[in-house]
Amino acid sequence: MPKADQADDSNKQHPQDELMEIIDQAKAAIGKLWETALVPFHAAVSKPAQRAYLGTFLFATTSLFLLGLSTIAYALFYFNYVPQVSVERTIHLQFGEGHPHGAATLDSSLTSLQAYDVSLLLHLPRTPNNQAAGNFMLDLSLLSPARAPSTTEKLLPESTLKQRLAHSRRPAILTYASPIIDTASTLTGLPWYVLGWKTESEVVEVSMFEGVGFPKGWTNVPQDVKLVVEADEKMQFYEVGVRIFAKFGGLRWIMYHHRILSYVVFTSMFWSSSMISALLAWLVLSSYLTSDSTAMKKEETTSLKIKTEQSESEKYEPSLLGGLSDTSRTFPAIGRHVALRFNGRDEDAGRGFDEGVKKEDEVIQSTGLQPLTPEADDEDEEIETSGFRDSGIGTSLDESQRARVQRRKKGSLLGGLPENQ
Question: Rounded to two decimals, what is the model's pTM?
């Protein structure tokens, strides 16, 4: 091919190579950009991030759950600690022999260690008898729950089994109006009287107790009230009622008059104590689980180490060791040379009995010294007392091997040189 044609072909291939290089660089740049864009995503889905998400979720769930429990706890505490602020009961008077009298049940509306104001509401018509009665007496008693009757008291009325906890007598009277004022007031309100929007009556409120309290204990809290109206004239009544109003003080006053603030403070206290208790419980539980896992890992490591030692010890088969002695021996060196030590079962024990004995003989021949061994017949006894014991490997040696071992022992005991020296 002419040189001009080859130059044209090279010029044609050169732009193609440049185009491929540009494409490869673009792909590399796009790959780097893609990896850079995925870095936040990889960080967001990594294991530390997943653990953080799980911890945040558990913390938020536990916090909301304990907040709900704290709200319920505060509500129960509020309704048990703060009593009913106002109690009203209607007293149905009984007329007949004696003065008009009546009673009403308070149930468990009152509580101990709380001051109360007690008053009576009398709805009286302005009849001639009521106006003629003038001042009349109101006798009010607060009675305790009925006690268990004895054998002789079973036939008695239940009212006799109740103890009087508080007693008060107060006077009452209708508002006076002269005949002229009374007539003028009636004529002025005549249309209202005709339409029924107004009646010729009056409501008289009489305070019977101020700040009365009761000692601690359910038997000291009133459960019933009893009223007796004492008057010289036969009086008429539309309605008679008793009103009991609690006079809060201290913490009860704060909780009743500042309910939102009290809710925030007490709920926060309950929630904080619950979170601290939950945290302590979690720390104790996690430490317990961690100690258990550590103990398990330690046991696994120990068992693995034992297995490894057993597997390594199995490498040295007795059949390969032959007549090699288990006893380690030290050979003194001449001059300042380091003493030579011969291990009966070394890493090369697998090479066989002949190679081990050959090595020991070579050491004896090179140094000209005998191994440092115990004396004569006391050798076996001293070895046993020192805690060292020969494994007995090589007891199945053939006759030639036994002869060589006996010859080596004899030479060491006599202190002379080996026979082959």
Answer: 0.55
